[in-house]
Design goal:
The chain is an alpha/beta fold. The chain is 47% helix and 15% strand. Helix 3 packs parallel to helix 5 and helix 7 packs across helix 8. The longest helix is centred in the middle third of the chain and has 21 residues. The protein starts with 8 loop residues before the first strand and ends in an 8-residue tail after the last strand.
């Protein structure tokens, strides 16, 4: 299938590693021009070089901090200067520290909202006019399975990513007639450094070896294993594609059947 992504301009947040990089690599493999973003300059440079060495799509990078006051305006301006605009925006942020809902402090909630919610919404708002004007655009927001099935001990993540779900659905209805789709991609247990971290926290909390905790986690997934980043990236690339033009306002799962709801 031709995904119609050749020379499309894609801006991918938090893409020096993990899920963001997986989606960026999948877009570049389809011929897209990709801008990687993050705080780790060396990781970004290495990731871009690896993409460019494959000789299909092109990648460049810029260091950004989602918590900076001028994050959205600065990045939107950089994308305009380097790419002449953006066709595809992949929203992605890191996750907050684990913790119980009963222990959430207002200061922590507001601080995390400033890095997980506010910058995503502001940046999208700045880039949407260009997409709407050309009659084609894709907004893909990477979130978490915790939106549909709250994850124990990840109360801040469950709360804030659910806020993005409401925003995404509302936005999708506003811009659908202008050729722009807005979807969310929900990972289950995709094997990344973040999942290793969470398994380590669970092992410490339960007083068990990490290998035992991981085995129990994998056993709870119908597919019987953690997902691979490239599998996740492929789903992301499809949602950003031309053939997916009639898919909008959705929350797509990539979870090996882990989420139990219908």
């Amino acid at each position: 299938m031709d995904l119609g992504l050749k020379n499309r301009r894609a801006l991918v947040l938090a893409s020096s590693r993990g899920l963001g990089l997986g989606v960026a690599e999948a877009l570049a493999a389809e011929g897209a021009r990709v801008m990687l973003t993050g705080r780790d300059e060396s990781a970004l440079a290495e990731a871009a070089a690896a993409i460019n060495a494959k000789g299909v799509g092109q990648a460049e990078w810029v260091t950004v901090d989602l918590s900076a006051a001028d994050f959205a305006a600065s990045l939107a301006r950089h994308a305009q200067e380097r790419f002449g605009g953006v066709d595809i925006l992949v929203n992605n942020t890191g996750g907050p520290k684990p913790g119980l809902a009963r222990d959430i402090k207002a200061a922590d909630l507001l601080a995390q909202a400033q890095t997980m919610v506010a910058p995503v919404i502001e940046l999208t708002g700045l880039l949407l006019p260009g997409m709407c004007a050309q009659g084609w655009g894709r907004v893909l927001t990477i979130a978490s399975s915790g939106i549909e099935q709250p994850i124990p001990n990840l109360s801040l993540s469950n709360t804030l990513r659910a806020a993005l779900a409401g925003w995404n659905k509302t936005l999708a209805t506003e811009v659908a007639s202008e050729g722009v789709t807005c979807n969310m991609l929900l990972p289950g247990r995709i094997h990344t450094a973040r999942v290793d971290q969470l398994d380590g926290v669970a092992a410490e909390r339960q007083g068990k070896p990490m290998e035992e905790v991981r085995a129990a986690s994998q056993a709870s997934i119908p597919a019987g294993r953690y997902g691979r980043v490239e599998e996740f990236g492929a789903v992301g690339a499809f949602l950003c594609s031309a053939p997916a033009s009639y898919v909008t306002g959705t929350m797509m799962r990539c979870d090996g059947g882990m989420i139990r709801s219908v």
